[in-house]
Write a structure and sequence with these properties.
Layout (H helix, E strand, L loop, with lengths): L2 H11 L2 E6 L5 E7 L2 E7 L5 H16 L8 E7 L3 H18 L3 E5 H12 L8 E8 L2 E7 L12 E3 L1 H10 L7 E3 L15 E3 L6 H13 L16 H13 L1
Helix pairs in contact: 4-6
Keywords: Cytoplasm, tRNA processing
GO biological process, one term: tRNA threonylcarbamoyladenosine modification
Protein name: tRNA threonylcarbamoyladenosine biosynthesis protein TsaB
């Protein structure tokens, strides 16, 4: 086998995943290929739809790959902004249909925690409580360990801040624990059992791509038409409607 043929074979064996995120106040696209990540990231509350395609084209060009050479796409499935989730998921579905590729849905809270762990190596393997603002005086939140970065130690939920604090106190959360994400801005969290909190931690597509790799290897990818966002808000909305009707 020639060196060229061997290099071509090794390239084909390397897993290549394109990831997208518009869950919160940022827009990012990343391509994972053989342990290397190429990412485009911009903080932007608006214009996600206009920004995504040029960012995808750029990371593909920088990586020297085409859409057809990918193994899968990955996207944050939520929870998060309703509009942001729909933009990322619809755009990912379009790419997946065009290239006939599967999609790996990744928790946006898990990606937030993974990004915080990368930004704060001093936090070590301590659990990270990831939190996004759900509006309506509520937050989306979950707790992630270094050993199981995909699965929250408590089920991901949308709750009032005071209920979150109560849940954290009752959970016997290993200490020290840390907080990450913009949802931590509520004053009720001053008494939360965390040693430090970084409210400026954004969600990056690079973490979505890296978290997607073992999920893809374990068969967690879905067809584009099966991709659905996770809002966590449906039950809460239904309960509020029931309360209004009962008055």
């Amino acid at each position: 086998m020639t060196q060229f043929a061997l290099a071509e074979l090794l390239t084909e064996c390397i897993v290549k995943i394109l990831a997208l995120d518009t869950t919160s106040g940022a827009c990012s696209v990343a391509l994972y290929s053989g342990g290397q990540v190429c990412e485009q990231f911009v903080r932007a509350e608006r214009d996600h739809t206009r920004r995504l395609l040029p960012m995808v084209d750029q990371v593909l060009a920088d990586s020297g790959l085409s859409l057809s050479q990918l193994d899968a796409l990955a996207v944050s499935r939520g929870p998060g902004s309703f509009t942001g989730l729909r933009i990322a998921i619809s755009f990912t579905q379009g790419l997946a249909f065009a290239a006939d590729k599967p999609v790996v849905p990744v928790s946006s809270l898990a990606a937030l925690a993974a990004g915080a762990r990368r930004s704060h190596p001093e936090w070590g393997d301590s659990p990270i409580v990831a939190m996004l603002d759900a509006r309506m005086q509520q937050v989306y939140w979950g707790i992630y360990s270094a050993g199981a970065p995909h699965d929250s130690l408590l089920a991901e939920a949308v709750q009032d801040p005071d209920r979150v604090v109560q849940s954290l106190r009752e959970s016997d959360l290993p200490q020290p624990a840390y907080g990450a994400g913009p949802g931590w801005h509520y004053p009720e969290f001053v008494d939360a059992p965390v040693a430090q909190c970084d409210m400026d931690t954004p969600i990056h597509a690079r973490e979505i791509a890296e978290l997607a790799l073992p999920l893809w290897q374990n068969g967690a990818a879905v067809a584009a038409e099966e991709l659905e966002p996770l809002y966590l808000r449906d039950e809460v909305t239904w309960q509020k409607r029931q309360k209004i009707r009962s008055k």
